[in-house]
């Protein structure tokens, strides 16, 4: 939150006349205490590219039951198949859950994935969704998320909009609230995380030149304080970022993208509202985040991540799906995909929705499904991909991959390729200067891009 101090001197001023309280407030601009110049460091090094390609990634917190959504097993015993019934879609031969009528109507624009694997142990962590890699055997600093990697490689499409935005409030279980971490690419490539009052501080309206200079002085004072306090090289070159930081603060483009009151009322109604409250230790079921994601990529963001709900249904799996999660999720996701097509953005914006693993074929004694890392599911759309098809299959019980295993890394390779980045020749360097490819020996999916 940015604020302007009054002309009257405060008792707790720093040596340059700026109060310590004002200095600390600067660091809270929706970025977990990081300043805009810090976040823009790596972007300047990468340069501004002309591409307007984007990715919207929906992390389905806690791992949804694939066999109750995209991969129903009607021939399995009752303790396996559950309560969901199939619904025909607008693509002959493809059926999904009756609780997803919105997606069923636009299946020609979607690709259900029925054989996703790669989670090594079934532990709850968003990491594999955001990186395509497990958490084990990481280089110093850790693997960066796809948002941070694209921030490093392509920089901002518009100097007043951060390339990587995370619509993910903190959660009781920290990985549930992660937008994707920057890893060894550093804080300059962290997600910009707008939330609450930070939005109101992103527009400089009705401010005189003196007050604008005052705000600039506050930015400089805070960054000098942080730079002097940090003996590492992570702050090096930060002064060059003042200009871009002020672009973001003064242009209003980012704040406009986050201001849903500027959206057509009929469009807002189509997306719906959902609930802004967190679900347990998970994320909100906020349908307005789907709309906000579209507005952000339209404004120039390259990667937007959002976290939805808490799908860890060890008990009451079917009532949780029916009453608290799946209808809202279906509404938000189908509205987003159709909206991208209506606006002529579908070829440029890749959409992926998934969780960290699947759920057990057998329904437990509490009416739930437990962790099942052997196979899960997901949904792809947009990005110029060949849609209206299903990729992969599982056996009769939905517990083992029957055909076309799909690793998380393959999906990531495809997303990079959709962004105009060759995932097999492009490398990024870790803290020690060692180069790393973007994915681990996984090719882009030929079914989607061939």
From TrEMBL:
Q: Which InterPro entries does the entry link to?
A: Alkaline_phosphatase_core_sf (IPR017850), DUF1501 (IPR010869), TAT_signal (IPR006311)
Tell me which domain of life the UniProt entry assigns to the organism this sequence originates from: Bacteria
**Which PROSITE patterns is this protein grouped with?**
TAT (PS51318)
User: Which Pfam families does the record match to this protein?
Assistant: DUF1501
Q: Which SUPFAM superfamilies match?
A: Alkaline phosphatase-like
Write down what this protein is called: DUF1501 domain-containing protein
